[in-house]
Amino acid sequence: MTDEPGKSLSLDRLDRAILRVLSVNGRISVAELARRIGRSKTPTQARLQRLEKSQVIRGYRAILDPIGIGAAHVAFVEVRLSDTREAALRDFNAAARDIPEIEECHLIAGGFDYLLKVRTPGISSYRRVLAESISSLPYVASTSTYVAMEAVKELGP
Protein backbone atom coordinates (compact mmCIF):
# COMPACT_ATOMS: atom_id res chain seq x y z
CA MET A 1 0.00 0.00 0.00
CA THR A 2 1.28 3.48 -0.85
CA ASP A 3 0.15 7.02 -0.12
CA GLU A 4 2.12 8.61 -2.97
CA PRO A 5 0.05 10.52 -5.56
CA GLY A 6 -0.27 8.56 -8.78
CA LYS A 7 0.59 5.22 -7.15
CA SER A 8 -1.86 2.37 -6.70
CA LEU A 9 -3.43 2.27 -3.25
CA SER A 10 -4.70 -0.98 -1.79
CA LEU A 11 -8.34 -0.39 -0.88
CA ASP A 12 -10.08 -2.38 1.82
CA ARG A 13 -13.81 -2.79 2.54
CA LEU A 14 -14.00 0.46 4.57
CA ASP A 15 -12.20 2.50 1.92
CA ARG A 16 -14.65 1.20 -0.67
CA ALA A 17 -17.58 2.02 1.62
CA ILE A 18 -16.29 5.59 1.99
CA LEU A 19 -15.95 5.91 -1.80
CA ARG A 20 -19.48 4.56 -2.39
CA VAL A 21 -20.99 7.10 -0.01
CA LEU A 22 -18.94 10.00 -1.41
CA SER A 23 -19.76 9.09 -5.01
CA VAL A 24 -23.42 9.77 -4.19
CA ASN A 25 -22.87 12.76 -1.87
CA GLY A 26 -19.48 14.47 -1.91
CA ARG A 27 -20.70 17.16 0.49
CA ILE A 28 -21.51 14.79 3.34
CA SER A 29 -19.97 15.72 6.70
CA VAL A 30 -17.23 13.51 8.11
CA ALA A 31 -19.45 12.77 11.12
CA GLU A 32 -22.29 11.55 8.87
CA LEU A 33 -19.85 9.62 6.68
CA ALA A 34 -18.46 7.90 9.79
CA ARG A 35 -21.97 7.03 10.94
CA ARG A 36 -22.87 5.54 7.57
CA ILE A 37 -19.80 3.28 7.46
CA GLY A 38 -20.12 2.30 11.13
CA ARG A 39 -16.91 3.92 12.39
CA SER A 40 -15.99 6.89 14.56
CA LYS A 41 -15.13 10.30 13.15
CA THR A 42 -11.35 10.35 13.75
CA PRO A 43 -10.42 7.12 11.91
CA THR A 44 -12.88 7.96 9.14
CA GLN A 45 -11.27 11.37 8.70
CA ALA A 46 -7.80 9.77 8.63
CA ARG A 47 -8.91 7.34 5.91
CA LEU A 48 -10.52 10.15 3.95
CA GLN A 49 -7.32 12.22 4.12
CA ARG A 50 -5.27 9.20 2.99
CA LEU A 51 -7.61 8.67 0.02
CA GLU A 52 -7.30 12.36 -0.91
CA LYS A 53 -3.50 12.47 -0.44
CA SER A 54 -3.03 9.40 -2.63
CA GLN A 55 -5.41 10.94 -5.21
CA VAL A 56 -7.85 8.04 -5.14
CA ILE A 57 -10.20 10.96 -4.43
CA ARG A 58 -9.05 13.55 -6.95
CA GLY A 59 -11.49 16.28 -5.98
CA TYR A 60 -15.07 17.27 -5.36
CA ARG A 61 -17.38 19.01 -7.80
CA ALA A 62 -20.93 20.00 -8.52
CA ILE A 63 -22.85 17.86 -11.00
CA LEU A 64 -24.66 20.29 -13.26
CA ASP A 65 -27.98 19.80 -15.02
CA PRO A 66 -27.15 20.05 -18.75
CA ILE A 67 -30.60 21.42 -19.60
CA GLY A 68 -30.32 24.01 -16.82
CA ILE A 69 -27.01 25.31 -18.17
CA GLY A 70 -28.13 25.25 -21.80
CA ALA A 71 -26.02 22.28 -22.94
CA ALA A 72 -28.58 19.53 -23.51
CA HIS A 73 -27.29 18.45 -26.95
CA VAL A 74 -24.75 15.63 -26.76
CA ALA A 75 -22.66 14.39 -29.67
CA PHE A 76 -19.96 11.76 -29.69
CA VAL A 77 -17.23 12.42 -32.21
CA GLU A 78 -14.77 9.93 -33.63
CA VAL A 79 -11.55 11.69 -34.60
CA ARG A 80 -8.90 10.27 -36.90
CA LEU A 81 -5.51 11.95 -36.90
CA SER A 82 -3.06 12.29 -39.77
CA ASP A 83 -0.14 11.67 -37.38
CA THR A 84 -0.14 9.57 -34.22
CA ARG A 85 3.42 10.03 -33.02
CA GLU A 86 3.79 11.14 -29.39
CA ALA A 87 4.40 14.81 -30.23
CA ALA A 88 1.22 14.91 -32.36
CA LEU A 89 -0.81 13.27 -29.61
CA ARG A 90 0.53 15.78 -27.05
CA ASP A 91 -0.38 18.70 -29.34
CA PHE A 92 -3.88 17.33 -29.95
CA ASN A 93 -4.44 16.66 -26.23
CA ALA A 94 -3.38 20.16 -25.20
CA ALA A 95 -5.57 21.83 -27.83
CA ALA A 96 -8.61 19.62 -27.04
CA ARG A 97 -8.41 20.58 -23.35
CA ASP A 98 -8.91 24.23 -24.38
CA ILE A 99 -12.29 23.66 -26.07
CA PRO A 100 -14.95 24.09 -23.36
CA GLU A 101 -17.63 22.18 -25.28
CA ILE A 102 -15.50 19.01 -25.20
CA GLU A 103 -16.68 17.37 -21.99
CA GLU A 104 -14.59 14.21 -22.41
CA CYS A 105 -11.71 13.24 -24.68
CA HIS A 106 -10.39 9.66 -24.83
CA LEU A 107 -7.50 8.18 -26.81
CA ILE A 108 -8.89 4.98 -28.33
CA ALA A 109 -7.33 1.73 -29.53
CA GLY A 110 -9.29 0.81 -32.63
CA GLY A 111 -10.40 2.12 -35.99
CA PHE A 112 -10.06 5.77 -34.99
CA ASP A 113 -7.83 7.72 -32.62
CA TYR A 114 -10.02 9.75 -30.25
CA LEU A 115 -13.58 9.70 -28.98
CA LEU A 116 -14.95 13.05 -27.83
CA LYS A 117 -18.10 13.78 -25.85
CA VAL A 118 -19.29 17.24 -26.87
CA ARG A 119 -22.08 19.25 -25.18
CA THR A 120 -23.73 22.24 -26.83
CA PRO A 121 -27.12 23.99 -26.66
CA GLY A 122 -28.27 22.48 -29.96
CA ILE A 123 -27.31 21.07 -33.34
CA SER A 124 -26.49 24.44 -34.92
CA SER A 125 -24.07 25.33 -32.14
CA TYR A 126 -22.58 21.83 -32.37
CA ARG A 127 -22.06 22.35 -36.11
CA ARG A 128 -20.18 25.59 -35.35
CA VAL A 129 -17.99 23.89 -32.70
CA LEU A 130 -17.22 21.05 -35.10
CA ALA A 131 -16.35 23.37 -37.98
CA GLU A 132 -14.46 26.06 -36.09
CA SER A 133 -12.89 24.21 -33.18
CA ILE A 134 -12.76 20.43 -33.45
CA SER A 135 -11.87 20.25 -37.15
CA SER A 136 -9.07 22.75 -36.60
CA LEU A 137 -7.41 20.77 -33.80
CA PRO A 138 -3.85 19.72 -34.66
CA TYR A 139 -3.51 16.73 -37.00
CA VAL A 140 -7.28 16.12 -37.46
CA ALA A 141 -7.73 14.18 -40.71
CA SER A 142 -11.44 13.33 -40.34
CA THR A 143 -14.35 13.19 -37.92
CA SER A 144 -17.59 11.24 -37.62
CA THR A 145 -20.42 12.45 -35.41
CA TYR A 146 -23.02 10.43 -33.52
CA VAL A 147 -25.84 12.42 -31.90
CA ALA A 148 -27.19 11.07 -28.60
CA MET A 149 -30.97 10.84 -28.51
CA GLU A 150 -31.27 10.02 -24.80
CA ALA A 151 -28.92 9.60 -21.82
CA VAL A 152 -29.81 6.22 -20.33
CA LYS A 153 -27.03 6.33 -17.72
CA GLU A 154 -24.72 9.23 -16.99
CA LEU A 155 -22.58 10.49 -14.16
CA GLY A 156 -24.93 12.17 -11.74
CA PRO A 157 -27.19 11.77 -8.75
From TrEMBL:
Record-linked InterPro entries: AsnC-type_HTH_dom (IPR000485), Dimeric_a/b-barrel (IPR011008), Tscrpt_reg_AsnC-like (IPR019888), Tscrpt_reg_AsnC/Lrp_C (IPR019887), WH-like_DNA-bd_sf (IPR036388), WH_DNA-bd_sf (IPR036390)
Presence of the UniProt keyword Transcription regulation in the record: yes
Keyword presence, Cytoplasm: no
Domain (HTH asnC-type): residue spans on this chain: 11-72
One GO term (biological process): response to amino acid
Pfam family, one: AsnC_trans_reg
SMART domains hit by this protein: HTH_ASNC
Entry protein name: Leucine-responsive regulatory protein
The entry's keywords: Activator, DNA-binding, Transcription, Transcription regulation
PROSITE patterns, sorted: HTH_ASNC_2
GO CC, any one term: cytosol
Molecular function in Gene Ontology: sequence-specific DNA binding
